[in-house]
Amino acid sequence: MTSSTLSLSLCAFDPDLDQRPAIALELDVQHNDVEQPLHQHRKGQLIVALHGAAQCEVPGGLWMVPPQHGVWIPGGTLHSNRVTHNAHLCLLFVEPGTADLPDKCCTLSITRLVRELIRHLAHIGPHYAPGSASERLALVLLEQLADAQVEQLHLPISEHPKIRRIANALALDPSDRRTLGAWASELAMSERTLARLVQRETGLSFGRWRQQWHLVVALRQLASGAAVQQVAGDLGYDSVTAFITMFKKALGASPTQYFAALR
């Protein structure tokens, strides 16, 4: 399915018209960095990456969805989605009040059972009958999903103009290694004041916030097929070893081990 077909499929499909407990779509993307603009649903939405990766941005934050993970977006939340060229996705739409799911966006680890139940729901389509075996499967799916493990793949993004300026610079050039002091000088403020501002606006130190940004970029590039050496260079690391050390400290495994475990 091409990116234009993806857009047409989503535009022609309004999940909010349906009141079944859960309905699903399965989609392939073949063009690079397909993006769905800012929008919202009455229903909650789970975006599951079967292959490749997806990225979801809401006011104040960005969530990464590597393979075999999903990002949960509660109903009524404004969000935009961006996917890699090789992404194969499932979209699950959940009727409000039918499942005990988080009231804030989060990345969830998706078990094989949950994944296959979502794919089955996408295969049968949205028009299953109330009380049918398909509806019972949908309810089992929601019960299993409520127990999913939350993963720390979140990048807080502040709308404060000074923080946004740093974020925009990192978005254009993730290898930008300017220190907190250098940024403070450019933003005409003291290093201590900027450190407090970043901590207040994001909940993280400047170094930890930039590392989380690097992690999000790395996951997106690695999921799209980029080599570890290329990603390390794109992020401005002095060596591949330094990048692998950062990745392992954050996610508990090297990039190769992490993606092998997902497969």
TrEMBL record:
Ranges where the HTH araC/xylS-type domain occurs: 164-261
Alphabetic keyword roster: DNA-binding, Repressor, Transcription, Transcription regulation
Species lineage: Bacteria, Pseudomonadati, Pseudomonadota, Betaproteobacteria, Burkholderiales
Gene3D superfamilies with a match to the protein in the record: Homeodomain-like, Jelly Rolls
Keyword Nucleotide-binding appears in the UniProt entry: no
SUPFAM superfamilies assigned: Homeodomain-like, RmlC-like cupins
UniProt cross-references to InterPro entries, sorted A to Z: Homeodomain-like_sf, HTH_AraC, RmlC-like_jellyroll, RmlC_Cupin_sf
Record protein name field: Helix-turn-helix transcriptional regulator
Domain of life: Bacteria
